[in-house]
Amino acid sequence: MTIDETQNQLVEEFSIFTDWTDKYGYLIDLGKEVPEMEMKFKNKQNLISGCQSQVWLYTEFKDGRIYFHTDSDAILTKGLAWLLVKVYNGHTPDEILETEPWFIEKIDLAQHLSPTRSNGLLAMVKKIKIYAMAYKAKSST
C-alpha cells in the first residue's frame, strides 16, 4: 500500500466519527494497541524533543525501507505517533521525503489538538523526515 493510500484509509476511518470526542476516543484506542517498545530503545537518542509528553521513535533500515517503532508515556500521544508510523512504516526514504502527511489536515487533527500537542506532532513528522534524509544519504554512498 502506498503512503497516499494509507492516508486515504485513515481519512476514511476518521470520517465515521462526527464528533471530536469520538475521534479522541479512537486515538486513545489506537494508542492502547501500540506494541510496547523495549526499554533499551527508550533512550535519549530516540526521544523526540518538542513534545509535551515523552515520545520515542526508533528506526530500522532494511532492504532500502525504513521501519518505525514508537512509544509514549501518554496514551493519546501514543495514538498520534502510531498514525504517523502507520503512514510511513515500510517505505523508502524517497517515498517518505516526497509525501507530506496531508491526512492531518483532512481529518482536522491540527485544529483540534492543543498547541503543545500540535507542536509535538510536527516534531514527530520532522524526525521521520530527518531519518529518511539520513538513510537516503547513507544508502547512496
- CATH class wording: Alpha Beta
Number-wise, the strands total: 2
Integer-rounded radius of gyration:
15 Å
Could you say what the CATH topology is called?
A: Sufe protein. Chain: A
The proportion of residues forming helix, as a percent range, comes to: 55-70%
Please summarize the sheet with the most strands. Answer: 2 strands, antiparallel
The oligomerization state is single chain
Structural class of the secondary structure composition? mainly alpha
Physical arrangement of strands within the biggest beta sheet:
1-2
Low-confidence stretches: none
Mean pLDDT reading: 94
Q: How many structural domains can be distinguished in the coordinates?
A: 1
Distance from N terminus to C terminus (CA atoms, Å) equals 28 Å
Which outline best applies? globular
Number of continuous helical runs: 7
Strand/helix succession: HHEEHHHHH
Q: What can you see in these coordinates?
A:
This protein is mainly α and 141 residues long. The protein is 57% helix and 11% strand. It has helices at 3-15, 20-33, 75-88, 93-98, 103-106, 109-112, 115-139, and strands spanning 55-62, 65-72. It has a two-stranded antiparallel sheet with strand order 1-2. The longest helix is centred in the last third of the chain and has 25 residues, at 115-139.
